[in-house]
Amino acid sequence: MRGKAGSGKTILFVCIACFLAGTLFNGQMWTRPSNHENENTLLRLPPRPDCDHKRKLIEGKPGDVMEEVVKTHQAIKSLDKAVSTLEMELTASQTGGRQRSSNHSVQKAFVVIGINTAFSSKRRRDSIRQTWLSKRNQLKELEKEKGIVVRFVIGHSTTPGGILDKAIDAEEAEHKDFLRLDHVEGYHELSTKTRLYFSTITSMWDADFYVKVDDDIHLNLGMLVSTLAKYRSRPRIYIGCMKSGPVLYQKGVKYHEAENWKFGEEGNKYFRHATGQIYAISKDLATYISINWPILHRYANEDVSLGSWLLGLEVEHVDERSMCCGTPPDCDWKARTGNVCVASFDWSCSGICKSVERMRDIHKTCGEGDGAVWNVDL
């Protein structure tokens, strides 16, 4: 009897334990969905927008896919351009701030015009002073009232303090219209001079535009300022008479390009750039040159050098034909029709042929009038 009783208790205990274990196991099975249910649940989830967009593209026409690719490519290009613009503006701003902090004499101006000249060109300078360039007392007023700065740009001789430098010192004392560069003058050093010119003037004047013009060019200041004012709100702008002349391979000829091999086969032309007689660049481009001048490559021709410095940047090239009018009758005809030229010269001479003798007559025929520059609203 005792054995049977013990066995009965054991059996009862085992039964209860099995019941509880079974209850627990069944509860987990009821709360846990099957794999099949998981799959159905996932399938019932709302699709993600990007996945749905891709599905539509795949199911759509090939043209729709290509249109989306083009839009994406354009968006990336726009973003790259915006980043490039911000980087250049930031660099220009930082450099401008350093220049102002180190040089408190930086003056605000609308345009700085540098007339490239040489020691042997005094008669040319005098012909300009007697025609389109304001007299000494008016230059100061022009800077103060209009923000227009004009200077003859020259360096020094190979023997600093010699007779050539003393002659320029005397001329400067009389007219007060020179900008002296720390540069040794020489025809084959024009690219170096141009590079230094922009580096120097950006540290002296905070201007919207910087212009370079040769001393055998007739210039109408009022028309120049009016033309530049049209582009005042547009960044990174390069204005001039755009050309693409041949690369000269023959040694000994004028304008020979010693590094002609860089431009490909003989007979090739240069990239598009402004002719060297006159051109203008905006503030940010001049700042770029002043920042990077030590590593800017110099080619044989100064205008080609400038064009190469700006070629790889996001720059707007403006082919302004009023900057390259011919001498009479060309500029005369245009003036009579109301299209007064910014600059006039002879292409055959890369300037005005016999400019000293002809400058006065050209000014009388093609000049805008002495008061024109004062009537320009800036």
Automatic annotation (TrEMBL):
As recorded in UniProt, its EC number(s) are: 2.4.1.-
Top-level EC class as recorded in UniProt = transferase
Lipid bilayer topology: Single-pass type II membrane protein
Which keywords annotate this record? Glycosyltransferase, Golgi apparatus, Manganese, Membrane, Signal-anchor, Transferase, Transmembrane, Transmembrane helix
- The UniProt record lists the DUF4094 domain at 7-95
Q: Does the keyword Ribonucleoprotein apply?
A: no
Q: Where in the cell is it found?
A: Golgi apparatus membrane
| Pathways per UniProt | Protein modification; protein glycosylation
GO molecular function (one): galactosyltransferase activity
Gene Ontology terms: cellular component: Golgi membrane
| Any Pfam family matching the protein | Galactosyl_T
Which cofactors is this protein said to need?
Mn(2+)
Query: Family assignment?
Result: Belongs to the glycosyltransferase 31 family.
Record protein name field: Hexosyltransferase
